Task: structure prediction
Amino acid sequence: MKISAGQEIKKVFIMKKMYWISLAYIVFGLSIGLLDHEVTYWTHFTGESILSLVHPHAIMLGGLVFLLLPLFMKNFAVEKQKSFHIFLWTYNIGLMITLGFLTARGISQLLMVPFSSFWDHMVGGIAGIGHIILTMGLGFLFHALMKSVGQRSK
Result:
Protein backbone atom coordinates (compact mmCIF):
# COMPACT_ATOMS: atom_id res chain seq x y z
CA MET A 1 0.00 0.00 0.00
CA LYS A 2 1.59 3.26 -1.14
CA ILE A 3 1.05 6.48 0.73
CA SER A 4 0.96 9.88 -0.88
CA ALA A 5 3.48 12.65 -0.29
CA GLY A 6 0.88 14.61 1.67
CA GLN A 7 0.24 11.67 3.99
CA GLU A 8 3.98 11.21 4.49
CA ILE A 9 4.42 14.89 5.39
CA LYS A 10 1.54 14.67 7.88
CA LYS A 11 3.06 11.54 9.43
CA VAL A 12 6.47 13.19 9.79
CA PHE A 13 4.81 16.25 11.35
CA ILE A 14 3.00 14.09 13.92
CA MET A 15 6.20 12.18 14.69
CA LYS A 16 8.08 15.43 15.28
CA LYS A 17 5.25 16.58 17.52
CA MET A 18 5.71 13.41 19.61
CA TYR A 19 9.42 14.15 20.00
CA TRP A 20 8.72 17.73 21.10
CA ILE A 21 6.13 16.55 23.63
CA SER A 22 8.65 14.00 24.90
CA LEU A 23 11.31 16.68 25.23
CA ALA A 24 8.93 18.95 27.15
CA TYR A 25 8.10 16.22 29.68
CA ILE A 26 11.77 15.26 30.08
CA VAL A 27 12.82 18.88 30.65
CA PHE A 28 9.96 19.29 33.15
CA GLY A 29 10.93 16.07 34.95
CA LEU A 30 14.59 17.02 35.17
CA SER A 31 13.69 20.53 36.36
CA ILE A 32 11.42 19.13 39.07
CA GLY A 33 14.17 16.71 40.12
CA LEU A 34 16.57 19.63 40.48
CA LEU A 35 13.95 21.71 42.30
CA ASP A 36 13.25 18.81 44.68
CA HIS A 37 16.95 18.37 45.42
CA GLU A 38 17.64 22.06 45.99
CA VAL A 39 14.53 22.85 48.06
CA THR A 40 15.13 19.72 50.17
CA TYR A 41 18.70 20.85 50.77
CA TRP A 42 17.90 24.48 51.61
CA THR A 43 14.91 23.74 53.84
CA HIS A 44 16.73 20.88 55.63
CA PHE A 45 13.78 18.62 54.88
CA THR A 46 14.62 15.07 55.99
CA GLY A 47 11.53 13.04 55.13
CA GLU A 48 10.09 11.77 51.87
CA SER A 49 8.07 14.23 49.81
CA ILE A 50 5.60 13.70 47.03
CA LEU A 51 7.75 16.00 44.89
CA SER A 52 10.36 13.24 44.57
CA LEU A 53 7.71 11.17 42.72
CA VAL A 54 7.05 13.85 40.11
CA HIS A 55 10.52 13.47 38.60
CA PRO A 56 10.14 9.79 37.55
CA HIS A 57 6.45 10.24 36.68
CA ALA A 58 7.28 13.00 34.19
CA ILE A 59 10.27 11.25 32.65
CA MET A 60 8.73 7.78 32.34
CA LEU A 61 5.04 8.53 31.70
CA GLY A 62 5.72 11.62 29.61
CA GLY A 63 9.16 11.48 28.11
CA LEU A 64 9.54 7.76 27.48
CA VAL A 65 6.00 7.13 26.22
CA PHE A 66 6.15 9.95 23.68
CA LEU A 67 9.68 8.99 22.67
CA LEU A 68 8.48 5.46 21.81
CA LEU A 69 5.28 6.47 20.00
CA PRO A 70 7.02 7.33 16.69
CA LEU A 71 8.23 3.72 16.55
CA PHE A 72 4.63 2.53 16.65
CA MET A 73 3.71 5.12 14.08
CA LYS A 74 6.51 3.98 11.77
CA ASN A 75 5.71 0.26 12.03
CA PHE A 76 1.94 0.16 12.50
CA ALA A 77 0.56 3.52 11.27
CA VAL A 78 -1.21 3.89 14.60
CA GLU A 79 -1.78 7.62 13.97
CA LYS A 80 -4.51 6.78 11.44
CA GLN A 81 -6.77 5.44 14.20
CA LYS A 82 -9.35 7.77 15.73
CA SER A 83 -8.62 6.33 19.18
CA PHE A 84 -4.97 7.42 18.83
CA HIS A 85 -6.01 11.08 18.65
CA ILE A 86 -8.34 10.58 21.62
CA PHE A 87 -5.37 9.01 23.43
CA LEU A 88 -3.22 12.08 22.76
CA TRP A 89 -5.73 14.41 24.37
CA THR A 90 -6.80 12.27 27.33
CA TYR A 91 -3.30 11.05 28.16
CA ASN A 92 -1.78 14.54 28.09
CA ILE A 93 -4.62 16.05 30.12
CA GLY A 94 -4.42 13.24 32.67
CA LEU A 95 -0.65 13.49 32.92
CA MET A 96 -0.73 17.27 33.32
CA ILE A 97 -3.36 17.06 36.07
CA THR A 98 -1.39 14.34 37.84
CA LEU A 99 1.95 16.13 37.58
CA GLY A 100 0.46 19.51 38.48
CA PHE A 101 -1.24 18.38 41.66
CA LEU A 102 1.61 16.12 42.72
CA THR A 103 3.93 19.10 42.26
CA ALA A 104 1.63 21.37 44.30
CA ARG A 105 1.43 18.85 47.13
CA GLY A 106 5.17 18.17 47.04
CA ILE A 107 6.14 21.83 47.17
CA SER A 108 3.73 22.43 50.04
CA GLN A 109 5.32 19.50 51.91
CA LEU A 110 8.86 20.79 51.38
CA LEU A 111 7.94 24.33 52.40
CA MET A 112 5.85 22.95 55.29
CA VAL A 113 2.76 24.90 54.26
CA PRO A 114 -0.09 23.76 56.47
CA PHE A 115 -3.10 22.50 54.54
CA SER A 116 -6.47 21.93 56.09
CA SER A 117 -7.71 18.37 55.91
CA PHE A 118 -10.17 19.37 53.18
CA TRP A 119 -7.50 20.89 50.92
CA ASP A 120 -5.11 18.02 51.56
CA HIS A 121 -7.72 15.45 50.53
CA MET A 122 -8.87 17.55 47.58
CA VAL A 123 -5.37 17.83 46.11
CA GLY A 124 -4.83 14.08 46.55
CA GLY A 125 -8.22 13.33 45.03
CA ILE A 126 -7.64 15.49 41.97
CA ALA A 127 -4.22 13.87 41.44
CA GLY A 128 -6.05 10.52 41.63
CA ILE A 129 -8.54 11.69 39.01
CA GLY A 130 -5.56 12.64 36.85
CA HIS A 131 -4.28 9.05 37.21
CA ILE A 132 -7.69 7.72 36.15
CA ILE A 133 -7.75 9.96 33.05
CA LEU A 134 -4.18 8.84 32.31
CA THR A 135 -5.27 5.20 32.48
CA MET A 136 -8.18 5.91 30.15
CA GLY A 137 -5.69 7.44 27.71
CA LEU A 138 -3.58 4.28 27.84
CA GLY A 139 -6.71 2.28 27.07
CA PHE A 140 -7.25 4.37 23.94
CA LEU A 141 -3.61 3.82 22.95
CA PHE A 142 -3.92 0.06 23.29
CA HIS A 143 -7.15 0.14 21.30
CA ALA A 144 -5.43 2.08 18.51
CA LEU A 145 -2.49 -0.34 18.57
CA MET A 146 -4.73 -3.39 18.37
CA LYS A 147 -6.70 -1.95 15.46
CA SER A 148 -3.60 -0.88 13.53
CA VAL A 149 -1.83 -4.21 14.09
CA GLY A 150 -5.00 -5.98 12.93
CA GLN A 151 -5.19 -3.87 9.78
CA ARG A 152 -1.52 -4.41 9.01
CA SER A 153 -1.81 -8.19 9.23
CA LYS A 154 -4.60 -8.26 6.63
The chain has a mean pLDDT of 90.
